[in-house]
Design a protein that fits this description.
The chain is of the alpha+beta class and 780 residues long. It has 13 helices and 50 strands. It folds into five domains: 157 residues, no CATH class; 226 residues, Cathepsin B, Chain A (Alpha-Beta Complex), CATH 3.90.70.50; 82 residues, Immunoglobulin-like (Sandwich), CATH 2.60.40.10; 100 residues, Jelly Rolls; 164 residues, no CATH class.
């Protein structure tokens, strides 16, 4: 088809947690006796320990649990889980997504674990193993703990969940004459703001992308996808990596000027990803594509998708059944894909609610068995549906696997120099690995005046002090390597916008309100606006900083003017003199300002305002959250570890050194530590609670390092980056291999197999493991 356009219960909170603690205590107690316990288990009958739980009882408990937590989910399937060839649990798979793990015998708490957002198989394998081990072990532990009263203690919890298994059926039910979706998304700006462009204008998303995106937003699935998709369009190579986070909770119901830019970017990126997956033929007037259901299901983690034509007698009953199960359906009308998300209570059963993907316009109930004229388009009753659109579970899921680990990640966001005011800002960071591997982001600010914090791929910049100018460094790391982007951030008391392309957004409280934006303009500048109508439907005019009219106006449409370089004030209002537009439900707006050229920079503005720049010092050591293998590139004036690390002491979890034996420093318990100083030429493991940079000052390090047979944890005392062959030329033939740990990944150098070695640069400030054949002195 082608388209053109948990708390357990009120009196038992924490039972699962407490029971888990109890199990851990038992496990520790029996560590040295596990073999005997296993042997006893073989000899003693299981029935003497507890009552087995039948599949029907497990289903009843799961329904009671869903009722207790008020979760509008249904049971999709039930599967017996075995461990070491013995049943240990019932896996209850939920619809639309999630699972409940019910114990196989009633001596334990009924619910071992659950999720309403992902499947059991989505858990890390190691964690699944722990859960199943704990589900198996209590049966053994009761042999040595028959007096613990565990069965008596937990029986009340089983009884509670079995008492009211069907209460939440009422919560689950769909109510006719309502609709499931809350979104009113469209195809033009800002939904298309990450689409490819034609002659500088964004192409439309297309109805297919808008419909699918709204359905995905309803399910809020997946948290992360899989796969890499590439094709050629308009002599360009378009590519997208679906293995990235999807922040559903910040995607707005309507992406307008009242919503921060980073939230609109989330929606636009989703639209673009779906379009590239579908190999869309993007256009300015229309975007055509088909729905590649198999690729979609695999990449985004959905169940196999079914289709049905209106000629099938079960067409309308299938739509109704899907909606009754809280699952929207995609409806293929002739030339247009929409979402069906409700039905009317009339007797026909054919009056269906449509979300048309036109910013909420014409969304309504329509009789699908007859021709409908909607928004000037005529749709004959020649329809088809895509249904069973829900998150996959278990064997239904078939995610793509990364193709290789050879290429470094890419930070796709442009990250230009930025100006913020006292409110700060949040920026959507788009980073990916070309092969589909996981990417981890970290961020650092060069000064304490501007705080930079990452939440997944959302970067928040908060001024601690305004009138400051700092450098911000974003780093992406994957199995293929590391990528870094740096930009400058200027913090001002009063916002001034500056950029070749700038977006101004706001919302009017009444049609008497005028919003003002101070912005640097220079040369030919085009100013346009939108508030969700076909026309601009509000007034804009430009004044000097002091309020003198510069551009005769007001303008109610796009205009271009050549400005003398300066700071101006752009005004936006629903009213100008005696003319006005209605203050209605579309009171949010976006103004786009595009300069034909721009020579003035954020640094120039900071200089003109007398604000000094604080950048990263040369030689700063960048420390990421987690483990870092480093060395000192200077000889500190004071080598005590507390002095060297004083500037980042609040972010350090531990430091380890190795000099034939391990030495350890704990900043919370320095009196118990045996690592007291940090010296150049030595390597150190530093475990960080958050990212930071360490500036080490002092004298040049020694030019030689003593090495012993076996493993040596050392630094590189040169002031230049070198190749391994050159760096280790003075110890050629005396070592086996060299290993480093950079950006969360191991790299190695084998002098006998340089072609397969992954360590290609030796850098000052990094730490290295050298496996020596003999003692020697490494001259650098």
């Amino acid at each position: 088809m082608f388209f053109t356009d948990i708390n357990m219960m009120a009196n038992g909170k924490g039972i699962i947690k407490e029971r888990h603690k109890e199990m851990v205590m038992h496990i520790r107690r029996l560590t040295n006796y596990l073999f005997m316990a296993a042997l006893l288990f073989v000899l003693l009958p299981v029935a003497a320990l507890s009552a087995p739980v039948s599949v029907n009882r497990a289903e009843t408990v799961a329904k009671g649990f869903l009722n207790h937590i008020n979760a509008p989910f249904t049971i999709y399937s039930i599967k017996e889980i075995t461990y070491n060839n013995r049943p240990v649990a019932w896996l209850i798979n939920l619809d639309p997504t999630g699972y409940i793990l019910v114990a196989y015998d009633d001596i334990r708490v009924p619910v071992k674990g659950y999720s309403l957002s992902s499947g059991f198989l989505d858990l890390p394998k190691g964690y699944r193993e722990i859960l199943l081990q704990e589900l198996e072990l209590p049966s053994l532990l009761t042999i040595n703990d028959s007096s613990s009263g565990a069965e008596t203690a937990n029986s009340s919890f089983w009884a509670f969940l079995e008492a009211h298994p069907d209460k939440n059926a009422a919560i689950q039910a769909y109510t006719p004459d309502t609709f499931l979706l809350t979104t009113s998304w469209g195809q033009a700006y800002p939904y298309n703001s990450m689409n490819p462009q034609i002659n500088g204008d964004y192409t439309l998303t297309g109805c297919v992308q808008t419909a699918i995106a709204q359905l995905m937003r309803y399910h809020k699935h997946p948290q992360k996808g899989s796969g890499v998709f590439t094709y050629t369009w308009n002599s360009q190579t378009l590519s997208t990596v679906i293995n990235r986070p999807f922040n559903w909770d910040i995607m707005p119901d309507i992406a307008n000027g009242s919503v921060p830019r980073y939230q609109r970017d989330e929606v636009a990126a989703l639209m673009r990803d779906i379009g590239i997956l579908n190999r869309a033929n993007f256009g300015l007037e229309s975007t055509s594509t088909g729905f590649r259901t198999t690729e979609f299901a695999r990449a985004f983690g959905y169940a196999p998708i079914s289709t049905m034509s209106i000629s099938n007698a079960a067409f309308f009953s299938t739509i109704k059944n899907e909606i009754d199960n809280m699952r929207p359906v995609l409806l293929s009308m002739p030339g247009h894909l929409v979402v069906t998300d409700g039905y009317a209570s009339d007797s026909s059963g054919k009056k269906i609610h449509l979300n048309l993907g036109w910013d909420g316009s014409y969304d309504n109930y329509y009789f699908l068995d007859q021709t409908n004229v909607i928004g000037g388009y005529s749709f004959e009753p020649n329809h088809m549906i895509y249904y069973n659109l829900r998150p996959c579970s278990g064997s239904e899921c078939s995610p793509y696997t990364p193709t290789s680990t050879g290429a470094p990640p890419v930070i796709n966001s442009p990250l230009p120099d930025t100006i913020i005011d006292a409110n700060g800002t949040t920026i959507y960071i788009e980073a990916y690995d070309p092969n589909g591997n996981d990417v981890t982001l970290s961020v650092l600010s060069s000064c304490d005046d501007i705080e930079a914090v990452l939440d997944s791929n959302l970067l928040t910049l908060t001024p601690i002090e305004t009138e400051s100018f700092c450098e911000v460094k974003v780093q992406a790391q994957s199995a293929g390597g590391t990528a870094t982007k740096t930009f400058n951030t200027l913090s001002l008391n009063n916002m001034i916008y500056l950029g070749a392309e700038t977006e101004l957004a706001g919302e009017w409280a009444s049609n008497y309100e005028t919003d003002e934006f101070y912005i640097y303009l220079s040369g030919a500048t085009t100013i346009s606006g939108t508030r969700g109508y076909a026309n601009q439907a509000f007034f804009t005019w430009v004044e000097s900083e002091n309020g003198v009219t510069v551009v005769a106006g007001p303008y109610e449409q796009t205009f271009t003017y050549s400005f003398t370089p300066n700071i101006y004030r752009i005004n936006a209002s629903l009213r100008y003199n005696y003319s006005s537009y209605k203050h209605d439900d579309k009171n949010s707006y976006i103004i786009n300002v595009r300069l034909s050229s721009l020579d003035y920079t954020v640094s120039d503005l900071a200089t003109d305002l007398g604000i000094g720049f604080q950048d990263f010092s040369e030689g700063d050591l960048v420390l990421s959250q987690g483990s870092n293998l480093i060395s000192l590139n200077k000889t500190p004036l004071d080598t005590s570890i507390t002095y060297v690390l004083a500037a980042i002491s609040g972010k350090i979890k531990s430091v380890w050194g190795f000099n034939g034996t391990w030495q350890h420093f704990d900043p919370l318990k320095p009196e118990l530590s045996d690592l007291h100083e940090m010296l150049p030429g030595k390597g150190y493991w530093i475990d960080m609670s958050s990212s930071a940079y360490l500036n080490v000052t002092g004298n040049s390090p020694p030019a030689t390092i003593d090495l012993s047979p076996g493993w040596n944890l050392v630094g590189y005392n040169s002031d230049k980056i070198s190749t391994p062959g050159a760096a280790f030329s003075t110890i050629t033939g005396k070592y086996h291999s060299v290993w480093s740990f950079m950006n969360g990944a191991w790299k190695y150098y084998d002098p006998l197999n340089t072609g397969t070695s992954t360590l290609t640069e030796i850098k000052p400030g990094e730490g290295y493991w050298i496996n020596m054949k003999e003692s020697c002195i490494w001259a650098q």
